[in-house]
Specification:
By secondary structure, the protein is mainly alpha-helical. Helices cover about 100% and strands about 0% of the residues. The mean pLDDT is about 95.
């Protein structure tokens, strides 16, 4: 009878040990999965941040280019107005000289 009890006790211990090992493996697997999810989340956050920074840089560069083009256009228009004004003045001066020469 003692041998039977001892056998049951040893089997119970073996079952308990196997169950503890199974639970430990499951916990380790869950921990690995959680770590993998954390790493993937951090990578996704890093990629999103880098993409946002890239887009912001592109937008800034685009705005700077547009501003430079606008200023260049304004400067060209100003120079064209000034040249037209100079041409008008020169034309008036030439007309005055012709009138004086004709008189």
């Amino acid at each position: 009878m003692f041998a039977s009890y001892q056998k049951e006790l040893l089997q119970s211990l073996a079952d308990s040990k196997a169950e503890m090992e199974r639970v430990q493996r499951e916990e380790e697997e869950r921990a690995k999965q959680a770590e993998a999810r954390r790493i993937e989340r951090e990578a996704a956050e890093r990629r999103a941040k880098e993409e946002a920074e890239r887009r912001a840089k592109e937008e800034s560069e685009r705005k700077a280019k547009e501003e430079a083009e606008r200023k260049a256009k304004e400067e060209a228009e100003k120079q064209a107005r000034e040249a037209a004004e100079e041409a008008r003045k020169e034309s008036e001066r030439q007309a005055e000289l012709r009138q004086e020469a004709a008189a």
